[in-house]
Specification:
Number of domains: 1
CATH superfamily: Lamin Tail domain
Number of helices: 1
CATH architecture: Sandwich
Strand content: 35-45%
Helix content: 10-25%
Low-confidence stretches: 10-24
């Protein structure tokens, strides 16, 4: 293979990879409840700030609290500006210091939180304000009144 053919093949591969990445939209972990009132379930909400629906078949949310890990399998679709709540098992012990991970169907890490703490068993959750804020810093999340399955307020990010 000559250099010109190799360059064309490389460019074609890059274009295919870019197109596949666009199909994933911009799905992020948007809100987390680690210590629900009345011993209710731990849960994580995901949000799609993209303009296309994303198929969640085979995706997983994993809540990790020290040696304990709670996987939550996802399915269905999440529409543009849509929210999906991943409910944990009600038998899980509430987390105090947990990190939440979001994996796609191929096992690729799509998003993760920093370690979050919550032992209050109240209606407050760790939330992105505005929805979809993703600067890869601790400042993405704030401890606010929960809004499970709907906007956290202060507008939303659209790509």
């Amino acid at each position: 293979m000559n250099a010109r053919t190799a360059l064309k093949a490389c460019l074609a591969l890059c274009c295919i990879a870019a197109a596949c990445g666009l199909a994933l939209g911009n799905v992020v972990i948007n809100e987390i409840e680690l210590s629900a009132p009345n011993n209710a379930s731990i849960w994580a909400e995901i949000y799609n700030s993209g303009t296309e629906p994303v198929d969640l078949t085979g995706w997983m949310v994993k809540i990790v609290d020290g040696p304990w890990a709670g996987p939550i399998e996802l399915s269905g679709q999440i529409g543009p500006s849509g929210f999906v709540v991943a409910e944990g098992d009600p038998r899980w012990t509430p987390g105090i210091n947990a990190t939440v991970y979001l994996y796609d169907s191929a096992g690729n890490l799509i998003d993760r939180t920093y370690e979050l703490s919550d032992s209050a068993q109240n209606d407050f959750t760790w939330s992105r304000i505005p929805d979809g804020k993703d600067t890869d810093t601790r400042a993405d999340f704030a401890y606010f009144m929960g809004s499970k399955g709907r906007s956290n307020g202060s507008g939303s990010i659209r790509l």
